[in-house]
Amino acid sequence: MNSFVLIVFASVSFILGYLFYGRYIARKLGIDPKRETPAHTMTDNVDYVPAKMPVLLGHHFASIAGAAPIIGPITAAVFGWVPVFLWIVLGSIFLGAVHDMTSLVASVRHKGQSVGKVIEAYMGERGKQLFLIFAWATLVLVIAAFTIVVSKTFVATPAVSTASILFIFLAIVFGFSVYRMKAGLAVSTVIGVILLLVCVWFGVKFPLAPSADTAQAQYIWSWILLAYIFVASVTPVWILLQPRDYLNSFLLYLVLIGAFVGLLFKHPDVQMPAFAAFVDPKLGSLFPILFVTVACGAISGFHSLVASGTTAKQLNSERDAKPVGYGAMLIEGTLAVIALLTAIILVKSDYVSHLAAKGPISVFSAGVGGFVAKLGVPLHVGITFAALAVSAFALTSLDTATRLGRFAFQEFFRTENPNAAQKVLTNRFVATFFTVLPGGILALSGSWTAIWPIFGAANQLLAALALLAGTVWLARKQKQNHFLRYPMYFMFAVTLSALVVLIYKKINLLMQYYSGQAMPQSFGVVSTYFLALIAVLLFIVAIVLVIEAYQHLKLSKEKA
Q1: Average pLDDT estimate for 272-284
Q2: What H or E segment, with its residue span, contains residue 324?
Q3: Are 51 and 62 in contact (CB under 8 A)?
Q4: How many of the other CB atoms lie within 10 Å of CB of 274?
Q5: pLDDT value of position 325
Q6: What is the pLDDT of residue 157?
Q7: d(Cα 14, Cα 256) in Å, to the nearest integer?
Q8: Over the stretch 376-426, which tens digit does the pLDDT of each residue have?
Q9: Is the distance from CB of 297 to CB of 72 less than 8 angstroms?
Q10: Hey, how many other C-beta atoms are within 10 angstroms of the C-beta on 375?
């Protein structure tokens, strides 16, 4: 099989999916451009800020397209390229994009509040509280996993750290220019992208490393990142989050375009087998592990939190819900396909050795560098640029996750007549602190390989719960919901099975420890307990929410 065929097939499928199935979903959700959005009715210049569609698409895409759609497909390629490729394409069109767009529209129809608020409206206060606990715990895992991924990338490629710091200052200047000095978006974008590339060049020329010792450098970067995401979470969205995500999106657009064009010229043959063993010794069985490993490349619960957490508060018109909600997921699906191709053009022995030695981001960067080298770009420049783009997006996911965790924490304790304690806990600084704290503890005490499987399962289960919320919302409105209901059934089957497997593994690991066998040096017994506890908590909360939803759906049918 030639890689050219796969990328063209995926691209055509995504375009047709956007034009036809995206239009179908928009009709079912009753998109109305004349209906005012919360960005206008509740403007506060902190979280609720109307944004032009290209800007919001950039923010949303940059927030959802972190390292996960790269790490997931490359790691899952061990099962063979056919199941991974099919899951990315079909999952993105019929599950992921539908999930994202529905979450966005549902939030817009409920004052730009979270999916938890939608659950409260149709399943009661207890349903909302349970969902918020689930969402917050998942976001803590996101903070832990991505803090480790970004700090490791900074240490491995010091040029990335320099460029990332310069990106932050560039974004602040861009935000003030567009929102306070009323500079034109088109001109500001051109200048911003040029300066963005200058930042990349400056990073390559002047890499920043706080310590020659790798472990110490990663520890220092972790603390710096935790301090940064605290500040980013409490800062008005127009100053940093929105402009940085918008500008960073152009980095990934360039990587996608360069890789796509390079593939058309180079079009290497696929070397990996179409199907491998159903059970991998390290990952486990294809079902359910493949579906939670690919994660954001096909569907992601984190997207529902972004859509209903920050994006819905900035949606200028409901007309923009399709390109932002549905379209961004398909662009991410394209990224996931390219990531998969960087792995499967390698022979299996090279794939296994490269993945074990340097990790999936290195596999992606080397592959993309090889693609763009066909266009005349020096190989080392292509590899460095790809690594910079990935790290930039991991960082955007990190600070967006922190803000969303703050939202979930505040919403959990918010009441109409708050007491003194509730007023303190709903303060954005306090809520951010209690969100960053557990994520930081996990990040500083372990490795992403221990956290990632739990994050993947929790993330996909969160997607099932978001689909559940959308199903109940439409059912209570007496509207068709089959396009949400059937994907929901599948995602619950996959993710609950995966959680059972992961809980078993954690318990088995602890039993080995108490029987005298040593714990892995990269992770401690306390952290293993913590992750096992989170996994059990997520499983229980999900089951309770399913029971609650079933009762309310049954009630809706009786009333109908």
Answers
A1: 81
A2: none
A3: no
A4: 12
A5: 94
A6: 76
A7: 15
A8: 877 777 777 787 777 777 787 788 889 888 988 988 888 878 888 888 999
A9: yes
A10: 14
User: Two tokens at 395?
Assistant: 């960082």
pLDDT for position 560? 55
CA atoms within 13 A on the CB side of 237: 29
- Alpha carbon 164 to chain centroid distance? 19
Write the secondary structure of 221-272 as one string of H (helix), E (strand) and C (coil).
HHHHHHHHHHHHHHCCCCCCHHHHHHHHHHHHHHHHHHHHHHHHHHCCECCC
- For 113, the enclosing helix (H) or strand (E) is none
Is-contact 128 120, C-beta < 8 A? yes
- For the ranges 95-99, 201-205, 220-224, 228-232, the one whose mean pLDDT is highest: 95-99
Domain total in the chain: 1
Count Cα atoms within 13 angstroms, Cβ side, for 115. 33
Q: What pLDDT shows up at residue 197?
A: 82
Residue 333: CB partners within 8 Å, gap ≥ 6? 10, 14, 69, 88, 89, 91, 92, 93, 96, 97, 297, 298
Q: Which residues contact 216 (CB under 8 A, 6 or more apart)?
A: 210
Q: Which CB contacts under 8 angstroms, 24+ apart, belong to 86-90? A: 87/290, 87/291, 87/294, 87/297, 87/298, 88/10, 88/294, 88/297, 88/298, 88/333, 88/336, 88/337, 88/340, 89/9, 89/10, 89/13, 89/14, 89/333, 89/337, 90/298
pTM: 0.84
Cβ-based neighbour number of residue 383 at 10 Å: 22
Give the long-range contacts of residues 352-357, CB within 8 A, separation 24 or more: 352/78, 355/74, 355/75
Model confidence band, residue 524 (pLDDT cutoffs 50, 70, 90): low
Candidates 57, 398, 396; CA nearest to 248 is 396
What are 446-484's pLDDT values in tens digits?
A: 666 667 777 778 888 889 989 988 988 888 888 888 999
- The CA R_g of the chain, rounded to the nearest whole Å, is 22
Question: What is 474-539 written as a DSSP string?
Answer: HHHTT---HHHHHHHHHHHHHHHHHHHHHHHHHHHHHHHHHTTPPPPTTS-HHHHHHHHHHHHHHH
Range of the domain at 257: 3-559
Residue whose entry in the numeric block shows the structure tokens 């008005």: 236
How far apart are the C-alpha atoms of 208 and 410, rounded to whole Å?
Answer: 36
- Enter the tokens of residue 11: 């691209």
In the chain, pLDDT over 90 holds for what percent of residues? 23
- State the Cα angle at 374 between 373 and 380, rounded to 5°: 5
Q: Is the pLDDT of residue 171 over 90?
A: no
Tell me how far apart the alpha carbons of residues 48 and 298 are, in angstroms, rounded to a whole number.
29
pLDDT for 10? 95
Whichever domain contains 235, its CATH number is 1.20.1740.10
Q: Based on the number of CB atoms within 10 Å of its own CB, is 344 exposed (0-12), middle (13-18) or buried (19 or more)?
A: buried
